[in-house]
Amino acid sequence: MNWIVKQIEKAQPFFKKLSANIYLQAVRDGFISLMPIIIFSSIFILVADVPNIWGFYWPTGVSDSLNKVYNFSMGVLSLMAAANVARALTRSKNVRLPKVDQMPEAAVMFGAQISFLLVAVDPFTNKEGLYFSTAYMGTKGLICAFLVAFIVPNIYYLCFKHHITIKLPEQVPQNISSAFTNIIPFAFSTTFFWLFDVVFRTLTHTNLAAWIIQALSPLFTAADGYAGLAIVYGAMAFFWFIGIQGPSIVEPAVTAIYLTNVEANLHAFQAGAHATNILAQGTQYFVATIGGTGATLIITYMFALMSKSKELKAVGRASAIPVSFGVNEPILFGAPLILNPIFFLPFIITPILNVWLFKFFVDVLGMNAFIYNLPWTTPGPIGLYMGTGFAALSLVLIAAILVLDFVCYYPFFKVYDAQKVAEEASSGADTIEPEKNNDAPVAVDSGAIPLSITKDGKDLNILVICAGGGTSGILANSLNKMAKQDDLPVEAAAAAYGAHGDLLPDMDVVVLAPQMDAMRDSLQAEADKADVKMITTTGKQYIDLTRHADKALDFIVNRLKGVDGAVDSGHTPESPAAV
């Protein structure tokens, strides 16, 4: 196993580069801002349909009103995705342009939306006037929306890079001048897709979005099979094991399938048919990666309740609540599980077996697959029960998954626990309070905070960024609580990577969680442009910061002052390759 892990580590730079690809980032970041829409619309569909399970049906007027919210949000998801993904890509492209020649995000978004409508929507007329079909404005048009969102910002980028714009005299007010600057790239973008649509419809007699769905239907089917599911969820676990946030690479490739499958399942359920599509966000959140990537819910509670090692027991107890809500960085870096040869096999195989078991329940036992989208922070067993429409068989499946995960992890847990017990015995850890010094409070007064380098001269504004906003939220909340108690001039905010763009310019310092290390260069470029200091962290160091706000602030202040602010967690510092 040690040899396998060493070989994997050698390939880590390639996978980090893949994870930092600006197009994958754009899809992921664009969808982060769409998640409130997806979740909000799902609430209305839950209220509309769930009572039907117990024989209660809303009056037609109430049902239509509830479904209207869903149709007017999820029903135009691709139109919004074209705009948001284009905006995310524009931000990445703008880093490469001078500050005086930045592409306007709003103009690119409008160009992407119009271009998407040109190639994905079928117009029709009746006696009342001109209309257009919404068939591919929802989840079915997502892949088409991504393609449009990739091309439009590049057209704008070429125009702005080579100054192919209308320049007005300096005497013209800037707001008027900027409007004229956008005319040529906007015209190029929309004209390109208009001409493409004319040729494409002439050759294929259909729109681009419909053609893509037809062409990729075999891929959709294959991805929903046992082999496809193993590749998708095994890859997520593999990338996380080598220290790269797995969903950041895999999710952009399957997001369109996720949402299309859930909508198809919902329509089948509403029609009284069997919802059979397996690949869905709920499958990822509440089955394959229950408790977080690697299906870490059970192993965390095994550490907390069954471990003889004092260190592992402490890590398990500290991680239990976050992991229950899908925030598993504390156990990934605290145990650690990632890049730990002992856990290589169960970390990769357990998510695959979980989703295979789910597919068995759906295909053989007749349980419905996921018909609703729920927030990723919903505890796994609850999310599985609700997401499948409160299916009775899902309760049996939950128990089966927990037993399966216990069986998968138990032998490896026993080996690692015994190893840790032996280490503690040899070092005398069984007679000394572990990490005693680590609990000593660190005093940080107002005078120690370097307000002279802040933008407003009043508060040190800190932004913490992680993959999903989980652990960053824990750290930011702890800092704000301590600042309020001790009357310190500190304000902290948290964001998922991709949702940080609007917050970054107003910050003085950004703290990057270790799971986003692959994005470090990209974020550094953004931080430099916004005149924001960036601080990176290692695995156990970051987890220790989330648990001790005083040490976190001391760490940040020392780094800003150019002092080594590493947190002493009682462990050997990790190498960059380990995070």
UniProtKB/TrEMBL annotation:
One of its GO terms (cellular component) is plasma membrane. It catalyses: lactose(out) + N(pros)-phospho-L-histidyl-[protein] = lactose 6-phosphate(in) + L-histidyl-[protein]. The chain crosses the membrane at residues 31-57, 69-86, 106-125, 137-158, 179-196, 208-231, 238-259, 285-304, 342-362, 382-410. It comes from the Bacteria. GO terms for molecular function: kinase activity; protein-N(PI)-phosphohistidine-sugar phosphotransferase activity. This is PTS system lactose-specific EIICB component. It is a multi-pass membrane protein. One of its GO terms (biological process) is phosphoenolpyruvate-dependent sugar phosphotransferase system. The modification Phosphocysteine is found at residue 466. Residues 459-562 form the PTS EIIB type-3 domain. Its main location: membrane. The keyword Cell membrane applies. Keywords: Cell membrane, Kinase, Membrane, Phosphoprotein, Phosphotransferase system, Sugar transport, Transferase, Transmembrane, Transmembrane helix, Transport. It is found in: Cell membrane. Its EC number is 2.7.1.207. Residues 8-412 form the PTS EIIC type-3 domain. The keyword Transport applies. It is an enzyme of class 2 (transferase).
